[in-house]
């Protein structure tokens, strides 16, 4: 348990549920205003939906969000350290989140993974070479970050990844 820092404004946009439907092309539209910042409750609901959509095993999941400090607090119980870390990363790698307060409990404690913040020009092979001395071990990092990553090229600068021992 603890507090994890992320880069606010870098994470993936989690706005699909809040986007309005397109109007027919024949209807004249006023210029679009900048989207309003989500309320704390809207953000908490989006984060909760995002974590649930990943299908990670967790009981008693609850997420609260403080818009003043951009802090998301995650509570619940997971069986493994890997699931705990994936949930923290799933929440922290979303736009608007700068910190994640981990209040998750782990049934079967294991050693923690290292976390790595992706830099411009990074690939999983390059990161693998840095941590394991072998670029061909990139799949180990990819698998450790599934279902957060859909493919090995699905990384972006500022994103935080799990690096298993």
Automatic annotation (TrEMBL):
InterPro entries named among the record's database cross-references: Bact_Kbp (IPR052196), BON_dom (IPR007055), LysM (IPR018392), LysM_dom_sf (IPR036779)
Annotated Pfam families: BON, LysM
Domain LysM: 114-163
SUPFAM superfamilies membership: LysM domain (SSF54106)
Chain intervals with Low complexity compositional bias: 15-40
Gene3D superfamilies in the cross-refs: LysM domain
Region (Disordered): 14-40
SMART domains listed in its UniProt record: LysM
PANTHER family noted in UniProt: POTASSIUM BINDING PROTEIN KBP
Protein name, per record: Peptidoglycan-binding protein LysM
Organism: Acinetobacter pecorum
């Amino acid at each position: 348990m603890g507090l994890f820092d992320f880069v606010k404004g870098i994470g993936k946009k989690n706005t699909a549920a809040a986007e309005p439907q397109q109007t027919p092309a024949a209807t004249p539209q006023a210029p679009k205003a900048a989207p309003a910042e989500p309320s704390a409750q809207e953000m908490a609901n989006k984060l909760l939906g995002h974590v649930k959509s990943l299908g990670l095993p967790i009981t008693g999941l609850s997420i609260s969000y403080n818009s003043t400090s951009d802090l998301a607090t995650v509570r619940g119980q997971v069986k493994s350290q890997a699931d705990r870390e994936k949930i923290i990363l799933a929440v922290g790698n979303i736009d608007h989140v700068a910190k994640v307060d981990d209040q998750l409990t782990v049934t079967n404690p294991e050693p923690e993974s290292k976390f790595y913040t992706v830099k411009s020009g990074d690939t999983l092979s390059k990161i693998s070479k840095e941590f394991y001395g072998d670029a061909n071990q990139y799949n180990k990092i990819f698998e450790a970050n599934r279902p957060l990553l859909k493919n090995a090229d699905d990384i972006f600068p500022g994103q935080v990844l799990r690096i298993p021992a």
